[in-house]
Amino acid sequence: MSSKSRTAFGHLGLVAVAVIFLVAVPLANVILRGARVDLTENHLYTLAPGTRHILGTIPEPIHLYFFFSASATGKTPFFRSYAGRVRDMLRDFAQQSGGRITFTEVDPVPFSDEEDRATQFGLQGIRLDNSADPLFMGIAGTNSVGDDQVIPFVDPRKEAFLEYDLAKLVYSLAHPKHPVVGLLSSLPISAGFDPMTQQVRQPWAIVNQLRQVFDIRQLEPGLTQIADDVQLVMLVHPKNLGDQALYALDQFVLRGGRLMVFVDPWAEADPGTADAADPMAGPGQRSSNLQRLFDAWGISVTSDSFVGDNRYALQVMGPDGRPVRDIGLLGVSQDGLDQDDVVTAGLSLVNMGYAGAISAREKAAVTITPLVHSSDLAAPLGTAGLAFMQDPTLLLASFKPTGQRYTLAARLSGKVPTAFPDGPPPGMPAGTPAQIREASEPVNIVVVADTDLLSDRLWVQTQNFFGQRVANAFANNGDFVVNALDNLLGSNDLIGIRARASFSRPFTRVRDLRRDAEARFRDSEERLQQELRDTEQKLAEIQAGRKDGNALIMTPEQQQEIERFRSQRAGIRKELRQVQRNLDQDIERLGTVLKVINIGLVPLLISIASIIVLLVRRHHRSGGHPS
Description:
Elements: H1 3-31, H2 49-56, E1 62-68, H3 77-96, E2 101-106, H4 113-121, E3 126-127, E4 134-135, E5 137-143, E6 148-151, H5 162-174, E7 180-185, E8 192-194, E9 199-201, H6 205-211, E10 215-218, E11 232-236, H7 243-254, E12 258-262, H8 291-297, E13 299-301, E14 305-309, E15 313-317, E16 323-333, E17 349-353, E18 358-360, E19 367-373, E20 378-382, E21 407-414, E22 443-448, E23 460-465, E24 468-473, H9 477-488, H10 493-498, H11 508-544, H12 556-621
Parallel strand pairs: 1-2, 7-10, 7-11, 11-12, 12-22
Antiparallel strand pairs: 1-5, 3-4, 5-6, 8-9, 13-18, 14-20, 15-16, 16-17, 19-21, 21-22, 23-24
């Protein structure tokens, strides 16, 4: 082939490639719409097995409507981009359901029937700064019996929970009857009237979350029997329960009822001592236990000591406004959560406050499976000093880790005997069923040695977003509770989806560097404070030994001692600055290494691998002979 022919052939080839490209791209956008390859580590853009199971077992047709104001978002690409993410997931849901879900997108333009329909569903439109028209971006679903469920506004800040929210909506429509959960609590966890503020008390966020999945029924402390339709009892901070109530709980568990118990050696959310005549009563007034039932099951839960942990300690604001670490407030990360249990698998962070320790006694009737445990830098500390403690760093003064991991939450299983071997207690009403002496099947119980993990401040932040109260979770406390209740009730589908909700990828190496630097900083600071105390004591001794009676004029010896302290203080402060500077340098050095790997090394390795593959192919094509 001549040189001119090869040139013409090359030009034709380029034209052919261009034509193929121009045709293939639009065709691919139509044929492969919604198709993607999920290369994320946890397959964040692939429907979870629980979602696929829910979609595959829908008993009746469900229709989903996505109300999105396309005309009102022409100048807000952020919302349009996220709407595409929602739209793709809804299409995935419809495709995976095998035709049992139909999906319709509606643009509720102002003053239209579509806008009226969105309002009737209860969807909320927000007004952006650059638009006079309200923006709707919500989802409504209906089933064949007339039930409907809505997501009033699909908040882009909750993208991590998008699949769970949609799956929960579908699950609620497919199973409109919610399981009945009895809630018995001595803490102000539910809505009510606060006599101190003379205002209506808002329920805790965990209660709002539970009501979306379960039928919550309030139980009274003086109960003598639990209704047959109650499938699970959630017992929070049981204090001063009478024998009749304990017997009712005992018989409920023995006949197959499910139980989740939250006890606490020191409940910060407890309003205070129950003894009005003695307001300075001991810290035991803030503790709770279920001792009689625990004894029958063969477990112990500490009621006068909590677990301090120097690895999971959370950072709080100290009395002087400086951030300090509180070893009583724990942020338990994945290595402290059982990744083999459906309740905790995939959760990233559970925050707890002054939690107790759970242990098994000899010849226990139950098997304990830890769900949440401390690190090996933990030790038990007494609760006696917590009532008057203002500086959390004081807990570190005598803290010595034992090297043991303490169980903070656990699953109990086994055939347990009754806690009332001598028969029902006096005062049981007539018609009480005959006593069950032992469970015929293994019981299913979850015990958590902390109640503060339920309080809003440890896991959720509520904000006002365009007139809506939006709860943004920064920890998986709510996920943990709902997962446990789901599992106790036998529903595992939503658990797998919920475990994928956290996209947080903590820099563990940076966290370890910071913790080591804080330890060195604290040692140097304590040395500085000790030097100050020694100097003040020495000055006082010199002053006390003076015989001239002039206390206002410093002696040369006092001046020399002060100058020595100032010199030492400057040196120690220089050490403190150097510790912080070294920490910053270590973090910056780590960041530089990661940049070199991601930006330089990885592309270089890919290029070298591509060249090697290309050379090997050419070698094979040439039959092993050089061209």
